[in-house]
């Protein structure tokens, strides 16, 4: 059953959908594991796509509102706003290689 393995599938929420908006943006939860090349780097160093935005970081149960100088850490859970699946792929590649 593979119950011991963590599910790292990105979780997506369509922004505004519950309110009846036809929004194209999604809020995606991405996890930085020990193999992430983004750990130890500031957000500005990552050069994420210009239309994506890290809006919140869950760091061990405490929430961090990030800015460009925020340094990402292993085990951070990032809430990232993206426009589409292609952009999500680019963000994932930046974070995980």
UniProtKB/TrEMBL annotation:
Protein name: TrkA-C domain-containing protein
BP-aspect Gene Ontology terms: potassium ion transport
Chain coiled-coil ranges: none
Domain of life: Bacteria
Any one Gene Ontology molecular-function term assigned to this protein's record: monoatomic cation transmembrane transporter activity
RCK C-terminal domain boundaries: 14-97
InterPro entries tied to this protein: RCK_C, RCK_C_sf
């Amino acid at each position: 059953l593979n119950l011991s393995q963590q599910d790292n599938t990105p979780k997506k929420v369509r922004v505004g959908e519950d309110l009846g908006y036809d929004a194209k943006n999604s809020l995606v939860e991405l996890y930085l594991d020990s193999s992430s090349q983004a750990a130890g780097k500031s957000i500005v160093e990552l050069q994420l796509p210009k239309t994506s935005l890290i809006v919140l970081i869950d760091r061990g149960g405490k929430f961090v509102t990030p800015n460009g100088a925020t340094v990402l850490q292993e085990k951070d859970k990032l809430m990232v706003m993206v426009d589409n699946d292609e952009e999500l792929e680019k963000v994932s590649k930046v974070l995980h290689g």
